[in-house]
Amino acid sequence: MSQSAPDRVPPVLAPRPSGERGNLRGEATRQLILDAAERLFAEHGISAVPLRDIGIEAGQRNHAVVQYHFGDRDGLVKALMESRGAESEAVRTEVVAGLMARGEVPQVSDVVSAFVRPLAIHIQPDNHYLAFLSLLITEEGGYEGLVGVHTGASVITLRALLNRLIPEIPAPVLEERWWVTLTSAVHTLARYQAAQQKRAQLARMDILIDDLIAYLSAGLIAPLVPGDPRA
User: Fold this and answer.
1) What local confidence, expressed as pLDDT, does residue 2 receive?
2) Rounded to the nearest 5°, which phi and psi values hold at 107?
3) Which of 23, 81, 84, 227 lies at a 20 to 30 A Cα distance from 122?
4) Separation between Cα atoms, residue 195 and residue 199, nearest integer Å
């Protein structure tokens, strides 16, 4: 009788170094805090939520856990913008590259679309980024809420392209209109998402986004106000 093949001995996996396990736990905790902060900030406002409440919402027993991982409220807000903003920036970078490579002069609406559509990817269940960002802009008193992540390389490229497409608009006027475009896009997309969550009667989201792009594009090229000293 032939001998049976010897049983295979499963490979022994080396245990993870304790430092690596700690890093993984730390990253998981950071993400739980970011998720909780985004949700609470979107519901109550950035300045109204105690950092301790964010830690509790994230399931952490250490009352100083937010300060440990992010330092202070500003550090937490910055980390949240970097995390979510990177998602939009990755999409926008591809869109801008395609725009520049297609071999024809883009339209103003193409520039606006390249900003708006990558922002609209956050209209998803359990994603509170747009509501958070809308409140941040309001609490910061204007454009400061968008400075940093949403003035990244792709947005700078779009802004420079706009200069070439509508040189007849004076630089100070175009700068103001551009910031109005960015902030209006955030506020409007946040409102669309809120209405969608409340099951309000809305047109299809793709139609609303197309119309928003057309509306904002028209504002960028609108005639100058008579007597505007910036002209």
Assistant:
1) 46
2) -100, 165
3) 23
4) 6
The answer to whether 162 touches 115, Cβ cutoff 8 Å, is no
Encode pLDDT of 19-64 as tens digits.
555 566 789 999 999 999 999 999 999 999 999 999 999 999 898 9
The token pair that represents 101 in the structure block? 């490579």
Q: Are the C-beta atoms of 96 and 158 separated by less than 8 Å?
A: yes
CA distances, 16 to each of 20, 22, 199 (Å):
6, 10, 47
| Residue 41, token pair as written in the block | 């900030």
Q: CA–CA separation, 228 vs 231, rounded Å?
A: 6
How far, in Å, CA of 134 to CA of 178, rounded?
17
Rounded CA gap, 142 and 157, in Å? 22
Greater confidence, 26 or 15? Answer: 26
| Structure token pair of residue 171 | 């630089």
Report residue 166 as tokens: 């509508």
Q: Which residues contact 78 (CB under 8 A, 6 or more apart)?
A: 148
Which candidate, 143, 116, 144, places its Cα nearest to that of 130?
116
Predicted pLDDT of residue 64: 94
Mean pLDDT in the chain? 88
Rounded to the nearest 5 degrees, what angle is found at the Cα of 126, between the Cα atoms of 151 and 86?
A: 25
Measure Cα distances from 26 to 21, 23, 98, 107, 129 in Å: 9, 5, 37, 46, 22
66, 55 in Cβ contact below 8 A?
yes
Predicted pLDDT at 174: 97
Q: Which amino acid is at 181?
A: T
